[in-house]
Design brief:
Length: 302
């Protein structure tokens, strides 16, 4: 049997670096596709992974397909953990898949790592639109495509989402406070991804993981328990009012990053992007961190 070599694109990123480390932990042979000119902390992190056996190949997922196919020689699985605009997520990942086809790769894991992109519609979330478009273009390839979905990163839920204000002591949410949501830490997402990537019994499709499934009310309780502080629970409006707020902001701004956090929240608090089932049980050796424990370790210190 050919060696199960994995190529990771995005190995210098937040998630990709941890996926790479987890693959090495599991004894996989790993090659990283790295853009030229990496320096500073990213270079130091790559050096540490190289010392553990990581192979490097220079390249960009938007490179010429033949050049990329060279970089993919001998690779069984390609894992993409890239981030960027449509030129990266849609066109770039399609380009990487075409190179994977040329190189005889068996499986491709696209950079999805989100709430259920297959349940959302176009225009619900501009970041997810790029991934849905990519999925359409990857469909029908002889390379089997496996999406790994993890809900929202816990890291994002206590920062970027703007829900918890640790300074002001407020917890501000939209929609039904009792709607369950799928949350996973970056470390656990990486651990589950590595397990799925090396799992020969998985065909294409999607696997779904959650570190913990909690409602906004339970998330609030976990934040209070973890910090020993009280946080004012503020309901900003219904899910429909949230949708109207997103539309208002979209009219006002050319920059979708001004409202994408709200688009993610809408997908979650309506339940539209909620996982119907979880695949955690496939890998019982992974014991994911729960929200309270995560907040205890990661809340900003007063
Ligand atoms: N579920 C959630 O809550 C959540 C939250 C955040 C992110 N995510 C997802 O996780 C995935 C990874 O995100 P991240 O935050 O880890 O991203 P990140 O830290 O910004 O890293 C992005 C990686 O992509 C690489 N890259 C970008 N363009 C490339 C290109 N043209 N060719 C080759 N490599 C390229 C970057 O390389 P350089 O180092 O050269 O720039 C870097 O390694 C994304 O799918 C993202 O949407 C999910």
């Amino acid at each position: 049997m050919a060696e199960n070599k994995v190529l990771v694109a995005g190995a210098t990123g937040l998630l990709g670096s941890q996926i790479t480390a987890n693959l090495l932990d599991r004894g996989a042979s790993v090659r990283a596709l790295v853009r030229p000119g990496i320096d500073g902390e990213k270079k130091a992190a790559l050096d540490a992974l190289q010392a553990r056996g990581l192979e490097l190949v220079e390249g960009d997922i938007t490179d010429d397909v033949d050049k990329l196919a060279e970089a993919l020689k001998g690779v069984r699985t390609v894992v993409s953990a890239v981030q960027g605009g449509p030129e990266v997520i849609t066109d770039g990942q399609e380009n990487l898949l075409r190179a994977a086809e040329k190189a005889g790769v068996s499986r491709f894991v696209p950079s999805d790592f989100a709430i259920d992109i297959f349940k959302l519609d176009y225009e619900d979330n501009f970041m997810i639109d790029m991934r849905k478009r990519a999925a359409e273009r990857l469909a029908g390839s002889p390379v089997s495509v496996l999406s790994v979905l993890n809900g929202a990163f816990m890291e994002v839920m206590i920062a970027f989402m703007g829900i918890v204000d640790f300074e002001q002591g407020t917890f501000s949410h939209w929609g039904d406070p009792d709607q369950p949501m799928d949350l996973t830490s970056i470390a656990d997402t990486a651990a589950y991804t590595a397990a799925a990537v090396l799992d020969e019994t998985l065909a294409g499709g999607a696997v779904r993981f959650a570190g913990e499934v909690v409602s906004m009310r339970q998330f609030h309780t976990a934040v209070e328990a973890a910090t020993g502080r009280s946080f004012e629970f503020r309901t900003l409006g219904t899910a429909d009012e949230l949708r109207a707020e997103i539309e208002r902001l979209a009219k006002e701004s050319d920059n979708p990053f001004d409202y994408v956090a709200l688009q993610y929240q809408w997908g979650m608090v309506t339940g539209k992007a909620k996982f119907d089932s979880l695949d955690n049980d496939r890998y019982p050796e992974i014991v994911p961190v729960a929200v309270e424990e995560f907040v205890r370790a990661n809340a900003p210190k007063a």
